[in-house]
Amino acid sequence: MSTYVVVGAGPVGRATARLLAERGDEVLLASRSGRGEDVPGVRRVAVDAADADALSALVQGATAFYNCVNPGDYTQWDEAWPPVAAALLTAAERSGALLAVTGNLYPYGPVDGPMHEGLPDRPNGHKSALRARMSADAFAAHEAGRARVVEVRASDYTGVGVGDNGHLTLAGRMALGGRTAWMLGDPGTRHSWTDVRDVARALVAVTDHPSTWGRVWHAPTHEAVSGRDAVADLCRAAGLPVKPVRGFPPGTLAVGGLVVPLLRELRETAYQFRRDYVLDSSAITRELGLEPTPWEESCRATAASLLGTPEPALR
């Protein structure tokens, strides 16, 4: 039986821990508090992800550990992420355990056409530059033989447990509550949504295949769906009336950002909702056989989670 450590107990971390436990591995789910909802077969532990010594001790002897950390305050990434990223990489170097990173699409910046793993990182702001630097530092350590690293990138999350931290789930909660749903940008543009369970499946799969290490992979992601259609599909999945979806008026982020820090931060990534934003995940399907969760199933799971009904089982 192998031992795995999942650092970060958000929706991706819990889904990853659950998958590993279901196949019989020993799994530690680490967070700052060490508390939270029980995941069957998983032991919760407390650790400060920015403490390199504590993290190194925790992952010593593990086959792999997963960076599923998501700093809670979006406006504080520049302060929160660097010490965590440094501690994770130090733990990988000291322990020899594989570091599997949950990444995002920010490093690519605005692109024309679908995003694929062959694209260079071309960040367009401080948050995307931060994520690109984290990725570059990790792969530099891998290339130098100091650590073993693999990264899985995904688009905006949908699925179980995402709550109001997701663009679609935030709008979906409005619609499921019988209100008009509001979204950033143009809700009619095509957008890729990745089920958190598929991120977990990708993380576990690349961990199991040494030939995949040392590069970025895209989590299996369903064909792009507009925000308007996605919210409508959530309503249908819940058996509720479809509600209108509207985009915030142009200038909302610029004006609101003068007084609301979160809106100011969102200006950097607003391009993702003003133009088609499409993720190509064909490589992981072709090379590892991973298909995305069917869209209808993902919508049912997302709606059930938002409505507080029991969490659907992982596939």
UniProtKB/TrEMBL annotation:
Domain named NAD-dependent epimerase/dehydratase is located at: 6-212
Where does the record place a coiled coil?
Answer: none
Q: What is this protein called?
A: NAD-dependent epimerase/dehydratase family protein
Annotated organism of origin: Nocardioides bruguierae
